[in-house]
Prior knowledge:
With 67 residues, this protein is mainly α. It has one domain (2-65): Orthogonal Bundle (434 Repressor (Amino-terminal Domain)). It is built from four helices and no strands. The chain has helices at 2-25, 30-37, 41-48, 55-65.
Amino acid sequence: MKEQAKVLSEANELTRLMIRHYIQKHELTLNAFSKLSGIRQPNLHKLMNGKTLSSKSIEKLGMFFSK
């Protein structure tokens, strides 16, 4: 079970890095990224500060980054 938790933790960290990179590359605010991705800004703020996203929000991010 610890291995699964580690994988999920690493996935969250990679997601944070992807968002940070996208925001910096396109010179966006977190709010602007929220509007582009369709994920509510408070949820993104929580993710960027160490919390996790719901599976629905993760799916939205996957769709956004796969465009």
